[in-house]
Each structure stands twice: as structure tokens, then as C-alpha cells.
Write a structure and sequence with these properties.
2 copies of one chain form a homodimer.
Chain A (H helix, E strand, L loop, with lengths): L2 H13 L3 H23 L6 E5 L1 H4 L8 E9 L4 H15 L4 E4 L3 E7 L2 E10 L9 H13 L4 H17 L13 H11 L2 H9 L5 E3 L13 E5 L2 E5 L6 H16 L16 H11 L2 E8 L5 H21 L4 E8 L2 E8 L7 E8 L3 H11 L6 E6 L2 E7 L5 H7 L8 H8 L4 E4 L7 H11 L5
Parallel strand pairs in A: 2-5, 6-7
Antiparallel strand pairs in A: 1-2, 3-4, 4-5, 7-8, 9-11, 9-15, 10-11, 12-14, 13-14
Catalytic activity (chains A, B): a tRNA precursor + 2 CTP + ATP = a tRNA with a 3' CCA end + 3 diphosphate; a tRNA with a 3' CCA end + 2 CTP + ATP = a tRNA with a 3' CCACCA end + 3 diphosphate
EC number (chains A, B): 2.7.7.72
GO biological process, one term (chains A, B): RNA repair
């Protein structure tokens, strides 16, 4: 048996659910479905119950405990009624559950130790008629169920665990990785786990896959997988360039040298304050952190705002001459925008080039503005242009973070925090205080891997 | 009388030679020419004597004491003979003089308080037949003499003094300014001093003048004045972009607001060491100076080497991340390459971006080179590429100047000094020690004007 096969065999033992796990899940699902049908019987409308998701298709990784049940109502039912009836069924089935809102309301709750989503949707003949994203799910389910046999389902489990291990699993906006549905489509399309890794190894982004050969749009994404149930949708739209590259890297590395550890998500020991200071001493950089109470938002709203804010901070620092080596953002109770600087201080003067001397109106205006101004050096002439050396607005990165942060694009809720002055700026060794709350994030930051 | 006219009147009184000065010069020139003709009589070849230059044409500025006499030999005389006979005549006329070498040898000496150049050349029918640059001079002389009347000659004197005042007079390679011949051509072409300033005010570089409308080449210079005696030569080739801009600036400023002081070359009080430190404190920059014994070269060889070296130093510092605000070079007994830095220190690490992860051969090579290397952070993946943070070669500007200066293009004699280690690097307040030798240069540097 090759290295590849023996590693994969060992991983299969971890990711394949045992017969007991399967049976328990099947039984719990049946009980839930019965309850749902009982609740539907009390409604003045027909509806059926459909199990979807990885547990419906046998593609869940051992230990995952998610059950997704969809309640399908007639397409003619007004949306308001659908929402009302959907919540009624949900609350009947999961009396301890809570209502959640994606595109429309559903109920989430626990049942016999499983995390259950009970979601109302429309029963449609064709995916092109969908009214909201959840209406698409039954079509996805049907498409995959028709194509997944037991072997492919097992390979889906391997591939999902592989993506989890490398940190690229999940279409949430924090991870920007591969959705479960996308992982399944790829394994179906390429024909197995190994085949999927071999194909990914050879990806040359932008990569375009169109299983049904029916694309009706063009996409500007590094990875495009046209939804077999919707010719206008890229299933991989959320996957970042970095995660595409990460998948290529790990596919290549694993095929070259199969190593079981790639299936284990990294969990580095947290750095303590002294550990952070050691890295800073070795690197001789100046870190800067903007710290504030994390806005009370779901992750899919929070992280895009943090990413936008991190990029804004880094761009602003760069523009003022505080060269950024690397930037990051983390959130827990507090949120941090972090930028590690090569240059944290600039002189009191900056060069300001004016127009070419021969551009008469503009050039005279520039010269007259500064001539006789004791606060500047010059104007003088260099390479055909007027030049002055004038006082620099912002001499330190700390000043920028304390006084100019609103000049850059920030996430809306982050901007409110900054506007209100509800934030703290840490510079240099001060950032080591973050280790208490962000020790693991700092450990990852100072030991970056693909 | 307008402001312009009254200022010009006062300047005329300073720059117009008195009748006594004219007469004395005429008489001295006649005596020199007689001596030269006597010396020629002893030679086995015919030759005549021609006075050229500003004193021949009445365009010299009062107090200038240069007499240029050319001895013209038949075109058929072999070059070696011309050089030998030329030196013979020169040494006869100026027994205390010394031999100098431009394109060919001539004799330079003092006579009755005048600085005399006695230069052998060929007598030619046409300027296109010239064998060396000096053969062109008699043609220049004839061209201007035919066009200069007393009024224009007086306006040439004004314009020359104007150029001297703004620091743009002289075609030497230190100044890279306007030659006397060029100044005269411009005044002839535009028709007077005021007309010349008005024309220059409106210059839009590149400016092309072709008085004889006979150009046979195209020139890539900010100012092109096609030599009336040579269709392939730009008389203004040496004029720097900065000096063109400087002329435009001062023409505009003087026409707007005639101020006699523009005719006076600046002579700022030298800065002392404390004065240098005051500027550095105010500017909060880090100056760096490379100091060595000035190579023993004529200025036309020395300054191009110094300029090239200054530019090389500045480019090298910039490339290593030590951002240069302004650079300069000065020479006296010692020579200085000076760069004022915004950033004099960088971290111990630098970002090193590798290839996109999907470029298989190249990317694997990069990854394998750094994977497991404890001296780097990473490799990790960012925006689709491998990245490492590796040790930076050069962390301080001083290190660059002390160890890496030979990586950049330097003038040949400067390079020898650096190769031999015969130089000193001053950083920060240390440069204030330069004030003893370069106080005036430092005063100009810290009070730059157009």
C-alpha cells in the first residue's frame, strides 16, 4: 500500500461515521420529521418535509451533529404565510429553539444532542424559479444525491477533513473558504478524493468548472464552479485567492509527501506577553494595534467590516509613510486591527513637489504660496519643478492611529467606535498586552504557515 | 522710467566697461598679437592671429579680464606640427605661462593683469570641416561679430550678469548652465535683454531654436539652440533641466517685479556646526555623508563623477529602504556625497514575495528553499503568492555606506577611493563637523532657493 493509501486509510477511520452514529442519526431524523409532519397537519396548507445537507447525503464527517430539515410549501403561498407557517412548524418541533433570520426566518434548536435547522421553503419545479437562496437547497440536494454513491460520499468526507485541516473549509465570510456543497461538487466532478487533489494541484487560477456546461454569466473570481442548478451562480464566489492558493499548495504537498497531520487543524500554543516581546525584539519592527470592544454582530457581518478596516488602516499608514510589513485583525470580546510597521516615525519635514516651473499659472501659484513662508524650506528648483520641504502633518504612526484613522475606509460599526473615540492605540512593546486575549492569534501571526 | 528700466540702468553702470577699461584691453591685446606675429615669423609656416571671445566682441562684463587669441594655421598642416608650433608661439608670447590640454594643447598665462589663452587652430573655409572644437571658435566669432551692434552687445552684458546672478552662467560641467556664446546667441536671436527675458518666461521645454533653420539632427535636451555654424550641434546641450527652469523662474520673477539683487550671485554666510545641528533638529531627519579626499582632477572631470556618485548613493539608499529626502555633493580639499534621510533604519526582517503558488516549478522551488528554515518567518500564502519574512541584509544606512557602496554606480575616481576604504561615513549630528570646510555649501543646502 502506498504512503498515500495508508495515510488515507487511517484518516478514513477517523472521518467515517460508525454504524452506530449513522443509525442514531437516522432515527433522530425520523423522529424530527414525524414531529414536523404532525405540525404541518394542523396547518391549512399542504407541505412536505425534506432532509437535506451532509447528514442527508451521508457526507458528514464523523462527529458532526447537524441535521437540516426543510419544510416545503406550495409555490403559490404568499411569502408572509410561508414565514408564519414555517415558524409555527419550527417552534412546534423545537419548542426550546430560537428564531433566526437569514434571507427569511427559520428555527434553530437542539434535539437529542443534534443541532437542528428547521427551514421553510417553496416547493418548485425548477431551480430558476427560486425566490430565496434556501429554495435552491432542495435542488442541490437532489443533484448530489443522484451522483453520490457510498465511495464518493466517503471521499467527500476525506476532502472536507482535508479542507478543515488546512483552514480552508467554510463559506462563512471570516474563512472565505470552500462550502460543503462546493467540496461535494468538486469530488463528484473529479471522481474521488485523490483525483480532486490531483486536479487542484494543477489548477491555474482563474479556474473555471461548469459541470452542466450551462454557464450564463462570466465571473471575475479566482475559482469559478458554475452551480449545476443555476447557470448564473458561482458556487465558489466567496473563496478567496489565498484559499485557492492554499488548496493548491496543500494538494501538491500532500501528493508529494502524504502526511496525516495536514488533516488536523493547527492549534498552536498561545503566545504569552514575553513570547510576543521576543518576536518583536528579533524582528525589530514596530507593531501598532487599534483595540476596541467588538461590535455586537454575527461573524458574517463582523469579519467583512474588520477586514475592510484592517486594509484601510494598512493603506492609510502606508500613505503617510509608515511602511506596513504585515497586517491582521482578530476579534473576541475586543477586536484588534493590527499592523506591523517597518517605519513608525518620519521627519518633521516632507518633500512636496510642485508643478514644472514652465506651467505658468499653476507654477506661479505654487511659488507665491510658499515664497517667504518661514515654515518651509524652499521653494527651490529640481529637475524642472518647484519643490518645497514643508512641515509633515503626521510624524508618527501613533499620531495617525489616534487622529487620522477616520480618513480611511473602515467598516461601518468600526467607524462608529473610532468616531466616538472608544478605542485604544497600542504601539511597540505595548501590544504584548494583547497576549491575554489573543495569545493563539498572536502565535499564528508569528508562525505563519501556508 | 519704469521699474524695469531704472533697475536695468543701474545694472548697466556696473556691467558696462569704462572707456579706460576698453582702451587698456585693446592696447594689451594689440601688444599680445604683435608678440604672437613675431613668434609666427620664426616658424616655417604661415599663420595669422585672431582675437575671439567676449573681449573681441565687446560683450564682456566689466571687470572680466580674459583675452583669447587664436593662432590659425593652414588646414594642410599635420596635427602634430600644429600642436608643436602652437605651443612654440604660446611659450614665446607667454614665457611664464603653462601648457594646458583640452582637445589639444594650448598655453595659458598672465599678461599685464589679463588672463590669456593662446590657442592654435586650423584656418578653414567652412565650419563643417573642423577637426576639433577649437576650430569652431573663429566661426562663432564671425557669426556674432556680424550681428552684434553696440546696443546688443550691452544687452548681452546685462543678460550674462543676470545668468551669473541666478547661478546659471557657465557651460562647465559643474554648473551645467549657459555658455557665453549661448547667451550672446539668445540676445541676438530675441533682439535684446528684455526681449530675451520675455521669451524665456514663455519657454515650454523642450525649447528648440534654430537661428539658421538648418538643423540636421534631433536633440533630446530641454533646451536646443542649433549652432548657426554647425547644423549637427546643440549649443545648449550642457544646460540642465534645472537651469532651464531656473532661467524661466527668474525671467518671470524679474519681469513681474524687477529687483536689482537678482544680478548679484548669492553668497550666504557660512553655517557653523551649531547652525547645522539646529537645522537637523528642526527637520528631524538623519543626514549621512560619505567623505574622502577630493580626487585630483579638473572640475570638468571631477563634478560629473561627483554627480554620478551622489545619484548612485541616493539610489542605493532608496533601494535598501533608506528613503532620501534630498542629496547633494560638494568638493574642496575633501569631497562629500551627502544624503538626507527620512528613514535611516529598517527592521531585522523584510518581506520577500515569491511566485504565485500555482506556478508549479518556480513556486515549489521557492517553498522548498525556505520550508523548515528557522531564520525566516513563513513561507505563508498571501494574495495567491508564497511570502517569507527573511533577515534583512542591511539594517542601517550607515551599514549601507560602509559596506555596500560599491554596489551602486560611482564616478571612477570616487570608486577607487571607496574600494581602497579611504573614506569616512558621518551620520546624524556627526555631519555638523563638515561645517568647517563646507559652511557655505551647507548654508545653501539649508536655505535652498530657485
Amino acid at each position: 500500500m502506498s504512503d498515500f493509501e495508508s495515510v488515507v486509510e487511517r484518516v478514513r477511520e477517523r472521518v467515517d461515521p460508525t454504524p452506530e452514529e449513522r443509525r442514531a442519526l437516522t432515527e433522530a431524523t425520523a423522529r424530527l420529521a414525524d414531529r414536523a409532519r404532525d405540525a404541518i397537519a394542523d396547518l391549512p396548507v399542504e407541505a412536505d418535509v425534506l432532509q437535506v445537507g451532509s447528514t442527508a447525503r451521508g457526507t458528514w464527517v464523523a462527529g458532526d451533529r447537524d441535521i437540516d430539515l426543510f419544510v416545503r410549501f406550495p409555490a403559490a403561498l404568499p411569502r408572509e404565510q410561508l414565514e408564519e407557517y414555517g415558524l409555527t412548524v419550527g417552534n412546534d418541533v423545537l419548542p426550546e429553539g430560537r428564531e433566526e433570520y437569514a434571507e427569511h426566518p427559520y428555527v434553530k434548536g437542539e434535539f437529542e444532542g443534534y443541532d437542528v435547522d428547521l427551514v421553510p421553503c417553496y416547493r418548485l419545479d425548477d431551480a430558476t424559479e427560486i425566490q430565496s437562496a434556501v429554495d435552491r437547497t432542495p435542488f442541490h440536494n437532489a443533484y448530489l444525491e443522484a451522483r453520490l454513491d457510498d465511495d464518493l460520499a466517503a471521499d467527500v468526507r476525506l476532502f472536507k477533513q482535508f479542507l478543515k485541516g488546512v483552514g480552508a473549509y467554510g463559506s462563512d465570510l471570516r474563512t472565505q473558504g470552500f462550502a460543503g456543497y462546493l467540496a461535494e461538487l468538486l469530488v463528484v466532478e473529479y471522481g474521488g478524493f485523490r483525483e480532486t487533489l490531483e486536479a487542484i494541484r494543477d489548477w491555474q487560477p482563474p479556474v473555471v468548472l461548469d459541470p452542466e456546461d450551462h454557464a450564463e454569466a462570466s465571473f471575475d473570481d479566482p475559482l469559478v464552479v458554475v452551480d449545476p442548478t443555476d447557470p448564473e451562480r458561482n458556487v465558489a464566489a466567496v473563496v478567496s485567492e489565498t484559499n485557492v492558493a492554499r488548496a493548491i499548495h496543500h494538494a501538491r504537498a500532500f501528493l508529494d509527501n502524504p502526511d496525516e497531520s495536514v488533516f488536523d487543524p493547527r492549534a498552536p500554543d498561545p503566545l504569552d506577553a514575553a513570547g510576543v516581546r521576543d518576536h518583536l525584539d528579533r524582528r525589530a519592527t514596530t507593531p501598532l494595534a487599534v483595540v476596541f470592544d467588538a461590535p455586537d454582530l454575527v461573524e458574517d457581518q463582523l469579519y467583512p467590516q474588520l477586514y475592510r478596516s484592517r486594509d484601510g488602516l494598512a493603506r492609510g499608514l502606508d500613505e503617510y509613510g509608515f511602511d506596513v510589513l504585515r497586517a491582521a485583525t482578530w476579534a473576541d470580546d475586543r477586536a484588534v486591527l493590527f499592523a506591523e510597521l517597518e517605519v513608525a516615525e518620519r521627519p518633521a519635514v516632507e518633500r512636496h513637489s510642485g508643478p514644472p516651473v514652465h506651467v505658468s499659472g499653476h507654477a506661479e501659484g505654487f511659488y507665491e504660496k510658499y515664497d517667504g513662508d518661514d515654515s518651509v524650506y524652499g521653494p527651490f528648483v529640481e529637475d524642472g519643478r518647484y519643490v518645497v520641504e514643508r512641515e509633515r502633518d503626521v510624524q508618527t504612526a501613533r499620531e495617525f492611529a489616534e487622529n487620522r484613522l477616520l480618513e480611511v475606509a473602515l467598516g461601518a460599526h468600526v467607524e462608529s467606535r473610532i468616531e466616538a473615540g472608544n478605542y485604544e492605540v497600542l504601539v511597540g512593546a505595548e501590544v504584548s498586552a494583547l497576549a491575554d486575549e489573543f495569545g493563539e492569534e498572536l502565535a499564528r501571526y508569528f508562525d505563519p504557515t501556508p
